Amino acid sequence: MAHHHLRYHQLRKGEDDEEAQSLVDECGNAAYYKRTRPKLLSLIFLSLLSCCFVLAPCLFSFPLYSFGEHGNLVAEMDAKTPLCSSISNGTICCDRTAFRTDICFMKGDVRTHSSSSSIFLYRSRNTNTFTDHASSISGEGKGFEEEQLQHEKIKPYTRKWETSVMDTIDELNLISKKEDYGTHHQCDVRHDVPAVLFSTGGYTGNIYHEFNDGILPLYITSQHLNRKVVFVILEYHEWWITKYGDVISRLSNYPPIDFSGDNRTHCFPESIVGLRIHDELTVDSSLMEGNGSIRDFRNLLEQAYFPRIRSLIQAKEQKELSKMNEEQRPLPPSLEPVLETGKVEQQQIHLLKKPKIVVLSRTGSRAITNEDLMVQIAEEIGFQVKVLRPNKFTELAKIYRVLNSSDAMVGVHGAAMTHILFLRPSSVFIQVIPLGTEWPAETYYGEPAKKLGLKYKGYKILPRESSLYNEYAKDDPVLRDPESMVKKGWEFTKRTYLDRQTVTLDLRRFRKHLVSAYEKISRHSHFGS
Q1: CA distance 494 to 485
Q2: Per-residue b or e along 288-306, where b marks 16 or more CB atoms closer than 10 Å to that residue's CB
Q3: How confident is the model at residue 367 (pLDDT cuts 50, 70, 90)?
Q4: Neighbouring C-beta atoms of residue 249, cutoff 10 Å
Q5: Would you state the pLDDT for residue 57?
Q6: 518: closest CA among 356, 366, 332, 320?
Q7: Which of 474, 478, 512 has its CA nearest to residue 495?
Q8: N or C: which terminus of the chain carries fewer CB neighbours within 10 A?
Q9: What are the CA-CA distances from residue 1 to residues 27, 28, 342, 490, 492 (Å)?
Q10: How does DSSP classify residue 277?
Q11: Dist CA 379 CA 386 (whole Å)
């Protein structure tokens, strides 16, 4: 009888430390014979024929592999289907082929063990349920030697190429064992939905990284589960849960679990450890189930923040109503208050006819020193201007409300430009690009803005608009050739162009961009009609 074993081998390739999964198919107990026994030729032939029949589904199947429900190789998959897209019970499968992230999948009797930073998978004879502890008690007499069938290690954070930050991320052990060893590892909490484990360490605290390295990958990884998933978080932060609770509730129907802070054993039928990531602030629809896109993610933000925005509006209306009631006079209203009310209404209608532009204001490095004059010019052109100065404590729903109701946004390159995710499609986005920041400005915000459907314009400042103009000679490469200077590395770029530079706009030059934005908005809306 022929036996077939499917094993994973991780192959390191080059200095990138990327790993590929190769599937090895072995035929055991096949027709081994000695040529000194000619009389056994017929028996050998029958054995070979038997082996071929068993191998036929593998040999004549399709060129790309996946695991079916019972571990057999099954039908053809699209070339873009990721590794480990379908695995059998009792299996750990890790996809380490991506440059940005590793991701592992466990299916079967999955149990957490936070004190050892481990997730265990107990291989059960019953492939549909958790291990039956009563039937596995017989294993106690065997001494419970800790036999590990498979052991993987993973740091579930989406910047695996960046050694300095990955060194700060907690590592998880993913270990599969025989079912008998689960007898002493009882379930405290049983879940009937999968778990997704990820870290909120690393660069968490910077809004760009919170969305790019965390929230967007979480959406990409879990959206197909339709909220039937439990998030298990390493390096758990209460403030992060408070900040992103509205979004998390649209991805999961269950409260998140603090992996290190909750010492109970949580048991799951499946788990995904790590997150998938596509590109900067985007979703590649060709890699998503159902062809989801970055606009679908924005729709999810709309659903997440709408209840809170509605409560803010209701609270404001109630406050205004109470104020009006307090100011009511006991005497019949005179004509003057009626006229004043009419004036207020006319002013409100006039403002509603104006396109709204939001200025995301900075202080310190990369601040616009003549921002007030820029605002004045925008108002003269015909904009209703809102200056927004968010900080790390500003509620995201409030920022979303302002930007979602605007027609344009202006800001200097920096993490706050992540808020382009809150702009409606077809809105105008003007990014002021200081010296030495062109590549990150375009890569991290310019290109994602286009994918969001925004009308994007990058305003590259001239050397004379930079505060560095007063510090360096006019022919110094810092001013004349920033592109060559940033090749000196991150520390030089940060020290010179990010931390020490402010911007004084050439308002005559910048005004052209504001006028262009106003005209684009007016052409595609009722403004100016």
Answers
A1: 11
A2: beeebbbeebbebbeebbe
A3: very high
A4: 16
A5: 40
A6: 356
A7: 478
A8: C
A9: 10, 8, 93, 61, 67
A10: -
A11: 10
Query: How many angstroms separate the CA atoms of 76 and 61, rounded?
Result: 8
User: Do the beta carbons of residue 423 and residue 456 sit within 8 Å?
Assistant: no
Does residue 253 have a pLDDT over 60? yes
Mean pLDDT, to the nearest integer, of 431-453?
97
- What one-letter code names the amino acid at 420? I
Residue 482 has pLDDT above 70, yes or no: yes
Nearest to 175 by CA among 99, 235, 229, 118: 118
Distance CA 454, CA 358 (A): 14
Element (H, E) at 93: strand 91-95
Looking at 132-146, 178-192, 242-256, 342-356, which range is the least confident one?
Answer: 132-146
Q: Return the higher-pLDDT residue of 41 and 95.
A: 95
pLDDT at 318: 83
Residue whose entry in the numeric block shows the structure tokens 């990014």? 431
3-class DSSP assignment, residue 514: helix
Residues across the chain: 529
Kind and range of the H or E element at 57?
helix 41-59
Q: Give the H/E segment covering residue 479.
A: helix 477-480
Rounded distance between C-alpha atoms, residue 100 and residue 529, angstroms:
49
Q: Please name the amino acid found at residue 258.
A: D
Question: What residue type is assigned to position 165 of the chain?
Answer: V
* pTM over the 0.85 mark: no
Instruction: Decide if 84 contacts 19 (C-beta within 8 A).
Output: no
Distance, CA of 260 to CA of 232 (rounded, Å): 10
Return d(Cα 293, Cα 298) in angstroms, integer.
9
If 0-12 CB within 10 Å is exposed, 13-18 middle and 19+ buried, where does residue 400 land?
A: buried
Distances (CA, A) of 423 to 65, 158, 395, 397: 41, 25, 16, 13
| pLDDT tens per residue, range 153-179 | 999 999 999 999 999 999 999 999 987
**Among the listed residues 368, 373, 488, 493, the one whose alpha carbon sits nearest the alpha carbon of residue 435:** 493
What is each CA distance from 299 to 394, 409, 454, in whole angstroms? 21, 19, 15
Give the tokens for residue 361.
């204001």
| C-beta separation of 218 from 252 below 8 A | no
